[in-house]
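Format notes (please read before filing issues)

Several people have asked whether sequences and structure tokens are stored in separate files. They are not. Every record keeps both together, in the order shown below: the sequence lines, then the token lines. Line labels are part of the format and must not be stripped during preprocessing.
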Amino acid sequence: MTAELDQFDLWAGLAGGLALFLFGMDLMTAAVKRAAGEHLKTLLGRVTRNRFLGALAGAAVTGLVNSSTVTTVILVGFISAGLMSMAQSVSVIMGANIGSTVTAQILAFNVTRLALPMIALGFLLAFQTRREPWRDYGRMLLGLGFVFYGMGLMSAAMVPLRTNETFIDFIAALANPVAAILTGMIFTALVHSSATTTGIVIVLAGQGMLTLETAIAVALGANVGTCATAGLAAVGKPREAVRAALVHVLFNVAGVLIWVAFIPQLAALVRHVSPAGDVPRQVANAHTIFNVANTLVFIGFTTQIARLVEWMVPDRPIAADEPLKPLYLDAALLSTPAVAMENARRELGRMGTYVADMLDRALPAVLGNSRGALHALEAMDKPVDRLHQAIIAYLGRVSLNRLSEDQAQTLMQLVAMSNDLEHVGDRIATDLTTSTRKRLDEHAPIRPEAARRITAYHADVAKALRQAVRAVMEEDAALAAEVRGMKREVTGLSRDIARERFRHVPDRVDGALMAYVREVEIVEILDGIFKIARRIARGEIETGAEPEPDAPPVAAAAR
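Then the structure lines:
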């Protein structure tokens, strides 16, 4: 009975401790993403020119959010948008590996006795305060407390394993570095978290069940195993994502191959630079030294590595039937609302550019006599509808997160813009083409003078639409204000067109009356598009403004 009880305590302690550890990691990471997410893009975007600053930025971002996947996805967005080359991103990916060691350094602190006070204080901050930043800080502390408490439970549960023959034989087999590396690699690939593997290794090493050399070998394997997560995240993604994941794999595998023969020397080094007898700290320091050294070795070859992965994963042409296939709506970013919304903003930029191109192509189709051009214009609306649905669905999933008021307002602005752009596409592909077909059926030609005036009016509307889209993409309120300021000029021009054209209605020219009707109809449709452009610009101006006193909390509505 005692043996059965011991077995129950052992597995209950291990499973429960691991569950608390993983829950705490998830809670802490989610809170940090919410608190720091707004600054991630800015931090990475400012270091695209210097490989060493790029590595530092990659380390900082990954250390903050405890996720190299988030860092990689941000980079993919930068590369796709032309803001960063593949070569520039390589150093950031290398730095992300350094950032992933921050968790190991935190876990090496022997603060199990502080776990429950951290949980208590974190709970008070998370659930008893009203200010969102403090609630996030409370969740961070609460998550960290669960991490340390889970480690304490696992450590206590593992004590009987010191006399378990099966476990002793397994540990003895890990004395072979290759076996230890494979174990770390497989376990990390299964749990999708190198931090979990490192935490368990630190517990085992702290209990004296693993030698420092074996612990280092398992940690090296975890570095390779974490590539499985990056690889899975890249499946079905743009070429830039596949290349970024490949850089991650090549860098980690090459690093392990270099160090596998020098594990004893690395162990001797960390014993020398770490507190005597503090094996958990020695394991954490070995993990950090390994990744820093690898970065220093390979950072001089970022250009060559970029060329290699571009050769291994060549570009492929975009199919003609999918010009607006989503590129940035990555599910891996849903737990980081600020970054997810930034990627949705990029998709809206693509959608806005495409719709503006539709508007440009609409003018010759509307003024001409080709029904084939009208059919081609109608076909351009289908990709707009598909991308609109994808963006709305993605933002809907983002809204399930706990959002700050600013984030919720930004989300609603992006939703409104997506709806507005889809509406513009409909006005072009449906309203303009229908009006033109009626004119062709009525044999009502547009007079050259009217065509010239409509062309000038169309140019102003197209300019307003492009500037409104650009204002949102660049978060430029001044540019948005310029679009709003175009109202007097554009409205006056539309009145002039209607007034001038009306003078020719009494002309004894076949189709003069119907031509007038269709010309006014074109101007009214373009005027509707101009109003939508102004509405998009107004959304950018209003984003970030204080909510009205009687307005309901935006964050609550988003949740």
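For reference, the curators noted about this record: Confidence is low (pLDDT under 50) at residues 1-5, 546-559. The longest helix spans residues 2-45.
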